[in-house]
Amino acid sequence: MQKHKILIADDHAMVRDGVKNLVQQNKDLIVIGEARSGNETLELFDKLQPDLLIMDISMPDMNGMEVSRTILAKNPGASIVILSMYDDEDYISRCLEYGVKGYVVKNESGSELEYAIRSVLQGKNYFSRQAQDVIFKKYSQNVARKKTQEEEISLTKREIEIVRLIADGLTSQQMADRLFISPRTVETHRANLMKKMSVKNAIELVKKAQQLDLLQ
């Protein structure tokens, strides 16, 4: 039976021992190394080439997020599971951004870590229940914020046309010709748009319109 090679990185010996015991209850998994710091993790990863790295975020030298970013920049397909006491949205989001495939909060059950190990070794992503709750909460906040912005900014059909033409780079005269209105009317619409969307120039106007998906 071919065994999957596991590297464990945590600065606390008790945590490393606990993870090691959990891992080695599975006959197809083997712990090939243990690291106590960020730099040591990088060295052992390069030397041992594990199938999976289980790592804490808070470590000496270099934290787990920076280690993950460094490893994944060189090895985009690397399998990393973060095992951390932090369920902070910023930590989880950054790990996702870097390409980390798994995230488990330490106060959860050992079965969560086992699910994460199995899932990631199969090429899937696995974020434990607590981590998923944080991600969902952030997503819900973003949706609510966007909806609020859209409700606060009510544009007429003509104003939306003007925004899109500004984004296309047309001058006021060109917009007037396109819409069969006067340049002065175009300028009036432009001024109203700036006021409604709380922006100072065309660049900010277009960026705000993009954020509100008005340029589709």
UniProtKB/TrEMBL annotation:
Give the CDD domains listed for this entry.
LuxR_C_like (cd06170), REC_NarL-like (cd17535)
Tell me where in this chain the Response regulatory domain is found. 5-121
This protein's species is Chryseosolibacter histidini
InterPro entries associated with the record? CheY-like_superfamily, NreC/VraR/RcsB-like_REC, Sig_transdc_resp-reg_C-effctor, Sig_transdc_resp-reg_receiver, Tscrpt_reg_LuxR_C, WalR-like
The protein's name is Response regulator transcription factor
Q: Which domain of life is it from?
A: Bacteria
**Residues carrying 4-aspartylphosphate:** 56
Q: Single GO molecular-function term?
A: DNA binding
The alphabetized UniProt keywords are: DNA-binding, Phosphoprotein, Transcription, Transcription regulation
**GO process annotations (BP):** phosphorelay signal transduction system; regulation of DNA-templated transcription
| Domain HTH luxR-type positions | 148-213
- The parts of the chain that form a coiled coil are none
